[in-house]
Every structure is written in C-alpha cells, then in structure tokens.
Write a structure and sequence with these properties.
Elements (H helix, E strand, L loop, with lengths): L2 E5 L4 E8 L2 E4 L9 E2 L1 E5 L2 E4 L1 H9 L4 E3 L11 E3 L2 E3 L1 H20 L5 E6 L5 H13 L7 E3 H13 L4 E8 L4 E9 L2 E10 L4 H15 L9 H17 L5 E8 L2 E8 H7 L1 H17 L8 E5 L6 H11 L4 E2 L3 H16 L9 E2 L1 E2 L4 E5 L9 E6 L4 E2 L1 E8 L7 E8 L9 E9 L9 E8 L5 E7 L4 E6 L8 H13 L1 E2 L7 H15 L2 H20 L3 H24 L3 H7 L5 H13 L1
Helix pairs in contact: 1-12, 2-3, 4-10, 5-6, 7-9, 12-13, 12-14, 13-14
Length: 591
C-alpha cells in the first residue's frame, strides 16, 4: 500500500505519491490537482471541493471554508443545524483526497504524510493528526510546509549550494524559513510565521475597501451578498496579477455598487498586511542560530503569484524574488518527496533533511520562594535543530520540600502561564533545607514533534513520560463516536464534471456579476428552475432543463460580450491616473 503526501491547505488541498522514481500529483475526479478545502452540508449529504465551493454563494450558511485557521481551537462551526469542529471538517477533506488517491492508484491508502504551517503549535498539530485519525488515516509524520517547499525546490531546480529564504504565503497562513543547502543536506536554519495571515486577508481588505467606497457597512450585507462580494474580491486579486485594473459590481438595496480596482490601489490597501509580512521576515532572521547571508528569496503558496506581493518583496530585498513554478503545488510535491524518503525509494534515499523546533520548550520555575507567578526556564530554544536533547538541574525552594513538579510549556512568553501547557511530571526528593535537594529533567524532542521527558531526583527516583496532547488520547469509544459521525454524513461521490455542473458554475458566475434587474428577474429564476430539475429523478427533465437554460445563458452572454467591456477601454488607455479612474467609475455608474 502506497504512502501518500497531503498538502492540507486553507484554500486548496493537494495529494501526491512517489512512484516510478518521481513525485506525481494525483488528480481528483474533475481532473484538477487542487481540491478546494470547502465543505457543504445538506441533511446527511456532504459535498467537498469544487461542488462545495460553488455553493458558497448560493448557500453560505451551509458551507464552510478556511476552517484550517481554527485548527486546535474549540471553535464550533454550524452547518445546516449541525455542529462541527475544524478537525471534523478537515476529516471530510482528507477523506475525499484519500478516495481520489485510491481511485488513481487502484489500491487502498491507509498512511499519509501531511504538511502543516511551520508555526503550528502543539494543539494545532494535534488537531491535524486527529482529523487524519477520524478519516481513518495513519499519520506518523507532519512536515512543516516551508521545509517541504525547500526540499522540492532544491531537488527539482538542482540548485547549487547556498542559502534561501522560503516565503510561504498561503490562503490563511504565512511561514518564512531560512534554509541552507549543502550537497545532499538541506538544513532548516530558522522559522517564523503568522497562523492568521494569508491571501484571505487581502480578500477581506478588498471587501472592506469596496464597502467604504460605496458607503456600505459589511455588517449590513446578507450572507449571500457578502459571500458573493468576497468571491469577487478573490477573483479581482487574481486578475490584477495579469492586468492593470478590474471591475467589481454588487447589486444592493435596489442600486448598483461598483469599484474599479487597480494594482496601485490594491498595493495601498495591502500596506497593513505587508507590514505584518515584514515583521515575520525580520523575526525569521532574528531566530537564526547564526548570521547568514540569503542568496535567493523563493515564494511558494497559493498567494505567491500575486504581483503586488512580488513588487513589495522586490522593494524590500532590492531584487525580484523567485516565484516557484506552480507555487501552489510546490509544498505538495515536497511532501511527496518526503513520502519517497520514508518508503526508502532509491532515488531519494541519500537526501538528508533537517528541521527545527518552531517554538521554545521549557518548564515553569520560581527564582524565590515568595514569587507567585512562575516564569519560563527554556531547555530547547526555538530554531534548535531536531532531534534535540537537553538536561537541566533544578533545586528545591522550600525547607522540607519532598517533591519537585515540572510543569512543561511551549512558547516564547516570559511568564509560563501565557504559553501553551503540554503536561507535567513529578519526582520525590529527600526532605532537607531549601536548595539542598535537586532533580534533573531531560527533554528529548524528535523530528516528528514528539517530546519525551524524564526526571531524575537526587535520591535516584526516575520518572519518564511521553508528552502527548490530551486530544490524542481519545479512548476507543470517543474515537468510534467521531468516526461514526463521519460515516453518518454521506460523502457524495465526486464524478467528472458534467455539463450540468458546468452550467451551474456559469449561472453562479453570472449571478455574482450581473445587475439587480438581471439577478432578480432572470438569473435567480434560472438557478431555482435548474436546481429543481437537478433534484428531479427524471433524466428527461434534467436534459430539457440543461438544453433550455444553456441556450438562454449563451444568448445573455452574447449580448453582454457585444457591449464595450471595461477591459477594452483600459487597452485603449494604458496610461491613467486617479482622476481617469474617478471619471470612468462615474461614467460606469451612470450607464
């Protein structure tokens, strides 16, 4: 049985396998490599991926996306009267990816390597493993996303020895890693990140700007209108990487709202986001264990293709960063190489990949017996190369103290309780004067993110413990309950995109960009009529609806295309300033 590699992304997910001496991306049933990380629930029916994304505009209350940013939290997501945790929704995505992989490989898949943001803490990594367990997948190894990207970039590009900075800007997370490559060794020097910063934040910023320019409060919009506007913002952001301007339109309260968005305006909107990116880059440099000069800046991730981001980084580094070929696939391909290494494939068995500890690990200590708030004593510092082992000795603070308890934390804050508590371990010590009895504690942190702790007191007592997040200790009943919940929800079979699905996509896109009159009196009726036909058990009704509505859509598109488009106006006026834009927007609104 093959081991697959999975890039479980905020916006899109990919799956791959190492086969016949190379990494192969696995297509889904639509023939696409990217499966949108979107889940739609209706009753006990579950749609994942492309079909679910189409429902974001029509039924946003029953559709969830970007839930990766909530992994490791207790946030509950409500869909069609049911409650789901982020890891449960991620399990649906993983289950779909496994089904696609099994169909492609023609054999069962039970084990995977999954990528996670480098700055995911223990709770977030645990939630990712939980999602895999619920989906019936064995996952021993989680791989940091920028590490996977560096591995594939260095291998595929056959780069010479040197140092690169990997800027992984995805849909919902940002990771920056400094990586040094020497011969067959790829060493992660340092990492930094922001688990709540990505391309989605640019979409939200565009929506905020659109609303401010049209005197609308985002809170006033219906879920359907807001979802449609958010989708337009995403499309506008992408379009501006290939053209200088694009148009957004919203039908709201019997009026037409519009915005001409330019690259220059988008760059201004993104300045707060760029400032946050700068802070993460600076932190990655500070976290490096040694001073190092960067030879290349490599951009990966779904949002890496944005021209405004490349322009910003060029300004910072005084040279254009390298955008990886198919940057949204680089991480998945790197995870696929990891799968090949784990399978001991001959072509990659000599590759050596090191990784670093993303967060510091330590224990809570008091310097004085009258202290009330403990601070951190670090045993393994962030950016330490893994695996890592370190031992420290600690003494009693109280006269007659008979036990030393070590509370174990992960994080960078000075006060221990502001960090993430991982567990605790205790050993008995001889009762004596303060400072006379002691205990040694040893941390051993491996490449898979498993922390083994041992404590030995001066009287010879030894306690050992593997620190695992409590969520990973689900008993058999709890795991069975979680898996039964997944089974109760029937994952709808994803088939090759049919004419019916293609037509529904056209209708949704028309709905998003059309005027109020077209929406209310024509397109809404088409969508409702078509949905009823698709729900019918009669193939004749479905076929007739397909033909009739397809003809109507084609006629409408012909009429729209015969009118002078905004893009054609821009081609005639390649040089423009803000006054031109204002005039053009006024003309557009008058029309």
């Amino acid at each position: 049985m093959a081991i697959i590699g999975i890039d479980l992304g905020t916006t899109n997910s990919l799956v791959c396998v190492y086969q016949d001496g190379q990494v192969k991306l696995i297509p889904n049933s639509f023939g696409d490599y990217k499966t949108p990380s979107v889940v739609h629930i209706k009753g006990n029916q579950v749609q994942v991926g492309k079909l679910a994304k189409n429902m974001q505009v029509l039924q946003p209350k029953n559709t969830a996306a970007s839930f990766k940013v909530w992994m490791g939290t207790e946030k509950e997501i409500y869909l069609d009267g049911k409650t789901f945790l982020p890891e449960e929704l991620s399990a649906f995505v993983l289950k779909q990816l496994v089904q696609d992989a099994e169909a492609f490989l023609g054999e069962p898949v039970t084990e995977a390597i999954i990528s996670v943001p480098a700055y995911f803490n223990d709770n977030q990594r645990c939630a990712t493993k939980m999602a895999a367990q619920i989906a019936g997948l064995k996952v021993d190894r989680l791989v940091n996303e920028p590490s996977a990207a560096a591995l594939y970039y260095q291998t595929a590009q056959q780069k010479q020895d040197g140092v690169m900075m990997i800027v992984d800007f995805g849909g919902g997370t940002l990771d920056v890693s400094i990586v040094e490559a020497f011969q067959n060794i790829i060493e992660i020097v340092s990492v930094a990140g922001d688990n709540h910063l990505g391309g989605n934040d640019i979409d939200l910023a565009i929506v905020e700007y659109f609303c401010s320019q049209n005197d609308i409060s985002p809170q006033q919009l219906s879920p359907e209108a807001y979802s449609g506007l958010l989708h337009q913002a995403e499309q506008a952001k992408i379009a501006l990487s290939n053209q200088m301007a694009t148009m957004m339109v919203l039908a709201w309260k019997e009026k037409e709202c519009s915005l001409i968005l330019t690259r220059e305006t988008l760059s201004e909107i993104c300045q707060p986001i760029f400032q946050r990116i700068t802070r993460v880059i600076q932190q990655a440099i500070k976290n490096a264990s040694r001073r190092i000069a960067v030879d290349d800046v490599v951009m990966v991730g779904g949002s890496a293709q944005l021209t405004v981001l490349s322009d910003f980084l060029e300004e910072k580094f005084r040279r254009r960063p390298y955008t990886a070929h198919s940057p949204d696939q680089t991480i998945a391909l790197g995870v696929g190489l990891y799968a090949g290494i784990k399978e001991r494939a001959e072509e990659v068995q000599d590759l050596v990949m090191t990784d670093v500890c993303p967060f510091s690990l330590g224990v809570a200590v008091y310097n004085r017996k009258d202290e009330t708030i403990p601070h951190m004593s670090f045993l393994i510092h962030r950016s330490t190369t893994l695996p890592a082992v370190h031992t420290e000795r600690y003494w009693t603070l109280q006269d007659g103290q008979q036990k030393i308890t070590f509370r174990i934390y992960q994080g960078e804050n000075y006060y221990a309780e502001q960090n993430l508590k991982l567990g605790e371990i205790s050993v008995s010590v001889p009762a004596d004067l303060a400072g006379k009895s002691w205990a040694d504690i040893c941390f051993a942190y491996d490449i898979n993110g498993i922390l083994c702790v041992s404590a030995k007191s001066c009287n010879g007592e030894v306690q050992e413990q593997t620190i695992l997040n409590p969520k990973l200790k689900l008993n058999s009943k709890e795991m069975q309950r979680a898996q039964e919940k997944l089974k109760e929800m029937q994952l709808q079979q994803q088939t090759v995109q049919t004419e019916e699905q293609a037509l529904m996509e056209k209708l949704i896109r028309l709905y998003e960009t059309s005027s109020i009159a077209l929406r209310q009196y024509i397109i809404e009726g088409w969508i409702e009529q078509y949905q009823q036909a698709l729900e019918s058990k009669s193939p004749i009704i479905k076929k007739r609806a397909l033909q009739e509505i397809s003809q109507q859509v084609e006629r409408l598109q012909e009429v729209q295309e015969s009118e002078i488009s905004l893009s054609e106006i821009w081609k005639e006026q390649p040089d423009f300033d803000d006054s031109d834009i204002d005039d053009m927007q006024e003309d557009w609104q008058e029309e």
